[in-house]
Amino acid sequence: MPAMKELVKGTDRYRHYINGEWVDSTVKEWIDVENPATQAIIASVPRGGEDDADRALVAARAAQPAWEALPPATRGQLLKDLARLILENRERLARIVVAEQGKPIQEARGEIEGAALYLTYAAEEARRITGDIIPSDMPDEQIWIQRVAHGVVIALTAWNYPAALMCRKMGPALLAGNTIVIKSHEGTPISALEIAQLSSQLDFPPGVINVVSGTGEGIGAALVRHPIPRLITLTGSVRAGKEIFRAAADDLKLLRLELGGKAPFVVAEDADIGAAVRAAVLSRFENCGQICICNERMYVHRRVAEEFLDKFTRAVKALKVGDPTTMVDVGPKFSGMELDKVERMVDAARAAGAEVLTGGRRLTDGEFARGHWYEPTVMTVADNQMRIMQEEVFGPVVPVMTVGDFDEGLRLANESNYGLSAYVFTKDMRRVMRLVRELKFGEIYVNRPGGDAVHAYHAGIRDSGIGGEDGKYGLDAYFQKKTVYVNYA
Ligand code: NAD
Q1: Could you confirm whether the keyword Oxidoreductase appears in this record (predicted)?
Q2: How much distance in Å is there from the Cα of 68 to the middle of ligand 1?
Q3: For residue 71, which of 126, 119, 122 has the smallest C-alpha distance?
Q4: 235 CA distance to ligand 1 middle (Å)
Q5: The whole model's pTM is what?
Q6: List of residues 6+ apart from 205 with CB closer than 8 A
Q7: What's the gap in Å between 200 CA and the centre of ligand 1?
Q8: Would residue 316 be called left, alpha or beta, if left means φ above 0 and alpha means ψ between -120 and 50 degrees?
Q9: Ligand 1 atom closest to 392 (CA)
Q10: Whose CA is nearest to atom 11 of ligand 1?
């Protein structure tokens, strides 16, 4: 049987993982994987096509009935075993994440621990797959509602958390009795293939986990168009979400779309400024600002604006940017295209009147001669309609606006097409109670930095998606419900 990869001209060339085997693509083309910190090519993966999508989906369909027929605790045990293998390989996987994605090593270790936690959390739900038994209006009749698997699930993931996003979807999908075909972003395909390799050391039946590689418009679109899958779960851009929504419409496929964000960060006049500064820095610059729930725009009460901006700017200037294999705060942007986008957005904001307090340019000298580097940037703006206040930056840049009162902060926060996460710093409990109804966002952080819990619910509204992941509601999405009327007269 072919191995996971072979050495071609000095770099690893991976294969697809389909039906428990490493297989060559029928398309004889490969995609180079670049290290964002050095621009070195670290590996290549198949540029999968329609035949590969078909092969993976047929294998997943064949494996599904027997997989669903296993006791959930058996499925859960395999997920726990995979989590254990992931943790045993934590350092190696973390270094792969750093090499393909660019986040600092201590964050990558956290991502791998998070990936394992998604699997163990799902596994722990194995004995809680409950349904409902309800009375009938008829004599001698019982009604029950039972949760069963959808069938085959497609998981398409973004490049910012390649290992964690895969496991966030795979854990609940498999626990529920579905089989899965996973495609990571073409820029960060290696972690998923390596996790598939770990799964191949366990007793997962062939076809339960399939991992393919290629582009979104290539194999991604082929998977979405295919008649086999019932549910498509995407973590990615609004653009991809809308394209997939259209493509899935003809077959009425079920969709879970976890899309982009533009989180507002509101600082009231009664806020603990030190805590707000620390949270604002962490929630913006972690993973070089490349998190869907990142602090993307700030609204600070005018009475505390000077103190806040002074402390915030000093904290941002103190961030250490550099080699992500070492202990730094901020690594490179993920790609040259992403870096160009950030630069364009900052330049346009500057031209439209934004004042840059720190940063505002690429880093290109010395250790930054190679790679995709941008200075941590803070700017003040006066217009909420500016592009930098309305479009996702997804980089180490934050615009700050001064507001006259708390209500203005809330109003401007809601002036957005996005609805994923929001941050508010205030000590006034009456204001906190108002937020739940008045802030149009699915995930609200009060007096703390971002970071979602595996047993909570991560869901965006408006352009940030339809769906939601984690916890009991996230798991529930991987089941369909069947109602059975039993007459026993
Ligand atoms: P992307 O949309 O370019 O790609 C996401 C995945 O979808 C990739 O695997 C890609 O190949 C695939 N894809 C793209 N177009 C497709 C199509 N037409 N058909 C089928 N597959 C397709 O997104 P990205 O650049 O990888 O990710 C960044 C975005 O993801 C940001 O907007 C970020 O906010 C968002 N994100 C959201 C969450 C969340 O939970 N809401 C989490 C992380 C990232």
Answers
A1: yes
A2: 29
A3: 126
A4: 5
A5: 0.97
A6: 20, 63, 66, 67
A7: 27
A8: alpha
A9: 32
A10: 216
Catalytic residues: 258
Compute the distance from residue 102 Cα to the ligand 1 centre, in Å: 17
For 37-89, write each residue's pLDDT tens digit: 999 999 999 999 999 999 999 999 999 999 999 999 999 999 999 999 999 99
Q: Ligand 1 pocket: which residues have CB below 6 Å?
A: 156-160, 183-186, 215-217, 220-221, 224, 234-237, 240, 243-244, 258-261, 292, 392, 394, 420, 458, 460, 465
Tell me which residue has its CA closest to atom 19 in ligand 1.
Answer: 221
Atom of ligand 1 lying closest to residue 186 CA: 11
